Amino acid sequence: MQIQLLPSSFDAGGSANAAQRLTCFVIDGRVTVDAGSIGIALSDEQRRTVRDVIITHPHMDHIASLPIFVDDLFGELEQPIRVHATEEVIDLLKADVFNDTVYPKFDELKNERGRVMEYVPFQAGKEFRVGHLQATAIKVNHIVPTVGLIISDGNTTVAFSSDTAETEEFWSTVNQAQHLDALFIEASFPDSMEKLARASKHLTPSMLRSELTKLNHNGMDILAVHLKPAFREQVARELNELKIDKLSVMETGRIYEW
Questions:
Q1: What is the tens place of the pLDDT at every residue in 106-152?
Q2: How far, rounded to the nearest angstrom, does the alpha carbon of residue 168 sit from its chain's CA centroid?
Q3: How many CB atoms lie within 10 A of CB 169?
Q4: Is 138 exposed, middle or buried (0-12, 13-18, 19+ CB in 10 A)?
Q5: Structural domains in the chain?
Q6: By the 8 A CB rule, do 225 and 205 touch?
Q7: What are the two backbone dihedrals, phi and then psi, of residue 166, each rounded to the nearest 5 degrees?
Q8: Alpha helices (runs of H) in the chain, residue ranges in sequence order
């Protein structure tokens, strides 16, 4: 399984940098988890092959360029972009984004080959198919309806915490997996901003360390994501100071393989 965190910040020369302002993970060039930078950072090859998008929650940094992605491909699509989400999140996307005000209701539109976008609902706690992958969504503790994910291709299994503060059901479900190759877990704010982290339902490095005590699996790669750009260096330093085996900050643009 190959996973890439798409870049979402660029310097004056157009080169991507390390700051993560938008969230979009590409799996095997075919499926994404969230869609923050999907419309601006996919390679030409990925634009041709990504047709399944899982949305964990409707915050803008996780959906920002999804409308642009569908819009850009409108005329050439031979199959619809499939947006997988809970019914609750789908309702929010319909009400707040694809509403004929912010962007067209693409699920109601067609090109000459057929529909260009469709919603595919899933239920938390029940396994569902997305492209070539099996996935299970688990509710996590954020300020809007949000799910974490366990995703497997039959050989490799990974877990995404999505945006969350302290949570229980996610860890309980992950611990039931036979094995875990990688964990993608958020660490948004430095320890000095724990009050803000708790109010916005995010994690600091110290809170992340406490959450990992709930995990029974050992030996997997642990990749910290969602570091707020203004505090990236400080959060990265505090994560390093935890001295947790195989914990590192995920690099934008790099393709990881398990």
A1: 999 999 999 999 999 999 999 999 999 999 999 999 999 999 999 99
A2: 19
A3: 14
A4: buried
A5: 2-257 (3.60.15.10)
A6: no
A7: -55, 135
A8: 38-41, 44-49, 60-63, 66-73, 87-96, 169-175, 194-200, 205-212, 232-241
**pLDDT tens-digit readout, 197-230:** 999 999 999 999 999 999 999 899 999 999 999 9
AA letter at 106: F
Counting beta carbons within 10 angstroms of the beta carbon of residue 179, is it exposed (0 to 12), middle (13 to 18) or buried (19 or more)? exposed
d(CA 171, CA 140): 10
Residue pLDDT, tens place only, 15-48: 878 889 999 999 999 999 999 999 999 999 999 9
> Do residues 128 and 115 lie in contact, with contact meaning Cβ atoms separated by under 8 Å?
no
Contact 57, 163 (CB under 8 A): yes
Residue 229, amino acid: P
Amino acid at 128: F
Name the token pair of 189.
């704010």
List beta partners, residue 139.
147
Partners of 157 in the β-ladder:
152
